[in-house]
Design a protein that fits this description.
It contains 20 helices and 15 strands. It is of the alpha/beta class. The strands form 3 sheets. Strands 8, 9, 10, 11, 12, 14 and 15 form a 7-stranded mixed beta sheet that branches. Helix 2 packs antiparallel against helix 15, helix 9 crosses helix 10 and helix 11 crosses helix 20.
Length: 441
């Protein structure tokens, strides 16, 4: 189950700036050439790793049986794919259907006219767009034009709670900053870690920044940053976000040695299921890992989950989300008209069918389409999945993970500076200045 959990994170592009590894491809078409298929077929490069690989393969098989053209599927490992697709797009040899992550990478493709604008097509096919939860479209949109289709499952960042520990220390799930600080103090008094954090992985610490900035300044602050507005990193809310990190470090909020813990080892999750930590801010994909690796932790109802606390005087709402709204696919501008016709048919009738949604729910994920209440209610994980699904639909804002939303070079600088901030080696002002320099690069 550990490998499945990690592949979900990878498939959503959670890590930035990774070097290309050896290529692993399989499927009905090889990696050579454009991969765009013949006149009545369209190439589709997708990411390997279960359970998504089997779901994707079954999805393509079902569409190809409809008689509306053929999708030729090729799988790549996540790291290798990132290099492969950049090279292919730059050479004009991309497949018709391009797997992506929205955000900053999509903006680059759109500005270079390497992917098609789908806005008018979606306007003519409103039933296709209306099928999806509204909050997933933001990461698919560049300058108010839609360049990608959402697909797969959403994975918001969630404040997980060990309810047994919270009860033991006399605290409740925090809904305000004061609640959080109070729980931290009580956890210390009881001899348990207040917050489990695998800080060596860097993106795990970044999750705290994402929510802190939202709660302090509202979602518009990062929206301006992601759009590349001059001096947007110098917003007062960014500095205040950094000061909140300092406040957490001063309170010794994170487990001792957090800076040397890596998320890949699942040690942060183990601290939760072994009753050694009260709270953990992490992606929804960790639910499955805690269920499979934590004995009866999840099944006994000891795992709690909820929103990130609000901050007094802040602009961000308790119901705002951050994380991975969805996976995304785009249509290559170099595909032939015939291939584009097949790809659009796949987008409309194959990409997110009822069968796909059922498979995602069975795997413990929440599909990004509407009308899933009954199916989620019948799941073994109904309470958790229904809470995630409702949260997604009710969220006034769903901010994409920063290392996906930013351009790759800026994303790597973000991770470097995040690590330094959490090590206490950067002041909030220095963090803001360093990141602001990426806007000028």
């Amino acid at each position: 189950m550990k490998n499945i959990q990690l592949s979900r994170r990878s498939a959503l592009g959670a890590a930035a700036g990774l070097s290309a590894l050896s290529l692993a491809a399989c499927g009905t078409s090889g990696p050579g050439g454009s991969g765009s298929g013949g006149a009545d077929s369209a190439g589709y490069w997708a990411l390997s790793g279960e359970p998504n690989e089997t779901i994707t393969e079954d999805t393509v098989t079902a569409f190809n049986e409809l008689g509306k053209g053929s999708i030729e599927l090729t799988f790549f490992q996540n790291d290798a794919y990132k290099q492969k697709i950049r090279t292919a797009i730059g050479a004009g040899e991309a497949p018709a259907v391009i797997t992506g992550w929205g955000g900053g990478g999509l903006r680059t493709y759109a500005e270079e006219e390497q992917v098609d604008d789908l806005t008018d097509w979606l306007g003519e096919n409103t039933d296709v767009k209306d099928r999806f939860i509204e909050s997933v479209w933001a990461a698919a949109t560049v300058d108010e034009q839609v360049y990608a289709m959402p697909t797969g499952a959403a994975q918001p960042i969630i404040l997980f709670q060990n309810k047994t520990v919270l009860e033991k220390i006399g605290a409740e799930a925090p809904e305000s900053w004061e609640d959080l600080l109070g729980a931290i103090e009580k956890a210390h008094s009881a001899g348990v870690a207040p917050i489990s954090l695998a800080g060596q992985s860097r993106w795990t610490s970044m999750m705290w920044l994402e929510y802190l900035l939202d709660r302090v300044g509202g979602p518009d602050v990062f929206a301006r940053i992601a759009a590349g507005e001059p001096d947007s990193w110098l917003d007062d809310a960014v500095v205040e976000m950094g000061k909140k990190v300092e406040e957490l470090l001063e309170a010794k909020a994170f487990v001792e040695g957090f800076e040397s813990m890596a998320a890949d080892s699942n040690t942060d999750q183990a601290l939760m299921w072994s009753d050694k930590a009260a709270l953990m801010l992490h992606g929804g994909w960790t639910y499955g890992g805690m269920k499979s690796g934590g004995g009866s932790f999840v099944q006994d109802g000891r795992l709690g989950y909820g929103p990130f606390p609000t901050i007094e005087g802040g602009k961000g709402e308790l119901t705002n989300l951050v994380g991975n709204p969805a996976g995304y696919v785009s249509l290559s501008s170099t595909a032939t008209d015939e291939q584009k016709t097949v790809a659009k048919a796949f987008f409309a009738e194959g990409l997110m069918t009822d069968a796909v949604s059922e498979a995602l729910i069975e795997s413990g994920s929440v599909p990004v389409v509407k009308g899933q209440d009954e199916a989620l209610a019948a799941s073994d994980d109904a309470d958790y999945l229904q809470w995630v699904y409702t949260s997604m639909q009710d969220a006034p804002s769903f901010t994409q993970s920063w290392d996906q939303a930013l351009q790759p070079t800026a994303a790597e600088e973000l991770l470097v500076n995040t690590e330094q901030l959490f090590l206490g080696k950067l002041s909030p002002e220095q963090f803001a200045e360093n990141m602001n320099a990426t806007l000028e690069a």
